[in-house]
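Example record for the data management plan.
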Amino acid sequence: MKSIFQYIFIGLLVFMSFGCEDYLEPLDENLSSEDRLLFDPAFAEGVLLNSYIEMFDYFGMGNVNTDDAVANNLDNFNRRMAIGEWRADNNPMSRWNKYESVFFINRFISSIDNVQWKRDEVTNELFKMRLSGEAYAMRAIFHYFILQAHAGKSDGGELLGIPYYDVFIPTDGDFNLPRLTFQQTLDRIDEDLNAALELLPLDYSDSPDAVPPHYQSYSFDTYKFVFGALNKGRVDGRCVKAFQAKLYLLAASPAYLNGAGYWEKAAEKAAAILADKGGLSYLDPLGGVYYAQNEATMLSLKELMWRGSVYTGAWVEEAQLPPSLNGRAETNPTQDLVDAFPMADGTPIGMSTAYDPNMPYTARDPRLARYILYNGNEIGGRVIYTGKGAGINTVDSIASLSTRSGYYLKKLLQPNVVISNDGTVTSVPRTNVFLRYTDIFLVLAEAANEAGGPDFTVEGMSARNILAAIRQRAGITGDSYLASISSKEEMRNLIQNERRIELCFEGQRFWDMRRWELDLNESLQGIYHNGSSYQYFKVEDRVYPPHGIYGPIPYLETIKFNALKQNAGW
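Corresponding structural encoding:
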């Protein structure tokens, strides 16, 4: 795992030497000799490895523009977009700049055949094949991210995708490409992913059993040198299949193609990945708290399909711990999210006779105590109060520092971090997470339910038995509520709620709400304990425009490139 990230450091140096152009401007070839790409394979590979630096991870710290959280800083860009300031020229959720990574990848692909990777002819050819597979995969993944953020309907009602850049365009070339339809973009992404699957192994491994059929004619020692375990951390065939499943799920969603056979395709692709690992038995017992482990455990977690190297740092804790623990408490969970956590037996709180509004955290889903710092909860043995008499942790006690909702974030935090008054901070292990198996289990649950209902089975897995396994892992007991569900619609609601809980604060909710076409404009609630009882209050209204289900094309790009159509309403 370390090797790939040593090379990524080289990639960062390459990125710095090339410079950062505008989103759709060609790369300035004068900044670095093109000839060096041909005689310096490490430099050439750095052009590709730059794309790994730009990957999104699960620590996006977003959600303050959803119904799950509010920001305690009123000037937070994501908060401001959520209260009516989202515009084509003011879009914190834009991913248009990821085209920059696409251009680096295309530059790499254009030179790959002219680089001597190794002196041995066979080894050189295998390097070309692996690196080409990585490049096709990364190009597809970045186009997927851009599609997720910028697909939408034109003024005429046509569902549009994005421009697809699959060749290197020189400085004087034509960057003024029109948007493809959504279906055309989907097909192009899928084409690149399939091309990657032809070249990449399912896993990088030193085992002879892991050699794909099309590489079995090569000597094993040569194969292992190019495709061995040393490459773990790079994109592999398993990651590619996971992104295909996520791509098909996006396509099948109501905001896009609304089925069209893609529920089935998403279910089949996700099931194949999971069945290869043993199906439901592969659900990691630590999957729900993967972020709170020591380094040795983190390195061996089954939950993490694709991650970065393990490093030390406490930036998450510095940003999110309550002020009494010297944190900035930037993300404040809402009462709306807290209400999504069921009772300990799995029953929604609105349907449970055991729920007591005067003791709202008693007998709840254990994930609530793990993910949310509510009044009287603890982190690392330190009890946090947020009501009357709680000092700087009290609701609105200190602007831009105390909670606005009555809750603090606990998920994603290492509980043993200590931020001293003098600013010294405990070092803890952390890793960037690009793909989690729980996410893929939930992709399968959603797709299988939409394809055939709660008990529709793919590779031995159904929506019902997947949710049962996830909820049992969480500590829910009995779960007669899950057993009572009989319709696709009821299961859909439960799956959406489970995604909300399991993946909260991991940058998923913003996109899920839009692809599901949920109400974006609810009033968000908070809670305050006045010393004797709990009181609920409105924290903030969400003010999204009717067309806000789709994000805009950046305003300046539509000015520079007249072939780009804007999404309706923007």
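Summary line stored alongside the record: The radius of gyration is 24 Å.
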